[in-house]
């Protein structure tokens, strides 16, 4: 009985946080926060394109809006 309790305790201690990581990653991606937290992890393991895409997205967000052409109606 004691061994079963130890096994269940180990599964709870390690299993619950590990099971919550995919949920946390999905939530962080949806909200657009945490790029500084998940960026290095994505760059190292499995998805190195995410690192380059994050910089591209940041550059497009910071870029100024194009000036309207002289013939365009006012917005």
Topology readout:
Layout: H1 2-31, H2 35-44, H3 49-62
Descriptive overview:
- The protein is mostly helical.
- It is built from three helices and no strands.
- The protein is elongated and about 80 Å long.
- Helix 2 (35-44) runs antiparallel to helix 3.
- The chain has helices at residues 2-31, 35-44, 49-62.
- The mean pLDDT is 79.
- Terminal CA distance reads 74 Å
Helical stretch tally = 3
Report helical residue fraction.
Answer: over 70%
The best one-word shape is: elongated
Order of helices and strands: HHH
Unreliable spans: none
Radius of gyration over C-alpha positions, nearest whole angstrom: 22 Å
Largest beta-sheet characterization: none
Strand content: under 5%
Alpha-beta classification: mainly alpha
The total strand number stands at 0
Overall pLDDT metric? 79
Tags for this model:
mainly alpha, 75 residues, 3 helices, single chain
Short note summarizing the structure:
With 75 residues, the protein is mostly helical. 72% of the residues lie in helices and 0% in strands.
């Amino acid at each position: 009985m004691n061994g079963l309790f130890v096994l269940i305790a180990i599964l709870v201690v390690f299993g619950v946080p590990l099971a919550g990581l995919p949920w946390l990653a999905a939530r962080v991606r949806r909200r657009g926060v945490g790029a500084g937290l998940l960026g290095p992890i994505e760059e190292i393991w499995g998805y190195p394109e995410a690192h380059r895409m994050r910089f591209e997205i940041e550059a497009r967000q910071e870029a100024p809006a194009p000036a309207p052409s002289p013939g365009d109606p006012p917005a």
